[in-house]
Amino acid sequence: MEIAGKNIGDRPLILAPMEDVTNPPFRKFCKKFGADWLYSEFVSADALVRSVNKSLKKLTIDGMERPVTIQIYGRYIDSMVEAAKIVEEVQPDFIDLNFGCPVKRVAQKGAGAGLLRDIPLMVEMAAQIVKAVKIPVTAKTRLGWDCENIIVGEIAERLQDVGIQALAIHGRTRSQMYTGEADWGPIAQVKNNPRIKIPIIGNGDITSPEKAKEAFDKYGVDGVMIGRATIGRPWIFRQIKHYFETGELLPDLSVAEQINIIKEQILLSVEWIDEVRGLLHMRRHMAAMFKGLPHFRDLRIRMLQAPDLQTLWQVFDEIRERYGEG
What we know:
With 326 residues, this protein is of the alpha/beta class. 44% of the residues lie in helices and 13% in strands. It has 14 helices and 10 strands. The strands form 2 sheets. The protein has an 8-stranded parallel beta sheet. α9 crosses α10, α11 runs antiparallel to α12 and α11 packs antiparallel against α14. The longest helix is centred in the C-terminal third of the chain and has 18 residues.
């Protein structure tokens, strides 16, 4: 897959943008396990324009992450254009426009998926940003606002016409949020539209190597974007690539292997923020690990409530000892 002359690779696996998840430490882990293209957390255009430190820090990228995208969101064209120029200064490979975030605090204010209710504004915003920056601009959206308004086909054509270089589509509407099953049928229709020349990336419910393969083989997308399935399991990229290459499923990681990975990830998180906030940030990752272990509830609670690294390391030692690995 190529975007504006940049080669992303054959059947690329892409880390989806996720708020409070896809920060630099986590992106490095996903790259380590084979992600072909990384996205930042989504960044508020208004906050960038106001030079809010927390948002400016989200623009941090490392050379080993490339290709890497910074994604921005907002409801006003002027602030989105200004934010795109600010992002351009840190030289990501792409700038992505968030037209799909469904959460209330974003969508109900007219940003993210809220723009699905004002397609002319979405298209004009994209057009103005494309004109304002030299870096390739991509976009991510959903099927429509609700099931009665599946309009992604129109959106794809109009965004392509104003210079958007690739489009990622989540196979749900805004009203679905993250419930139900993603519908890849409309994504395939966009891909098969003879008017569409830009790469189309599919997103939604890619939780296994088999589903990733189906996305390419059945729906014909140019790339597959993986989101929530990476939380607590950044090695999913390696599992999928192994399956593509051999047709075989890698065995699950041992408890000891998972502990070694999560400890390294925690240390990076603590280094990125600080010990207290770094541990808080990692709780959702730890909560997603060690699925299916018998009689694990007590250790899980202690793991998630550990106030410092020393206490958490002791819990990990007990987990390792109890489940007899490594």
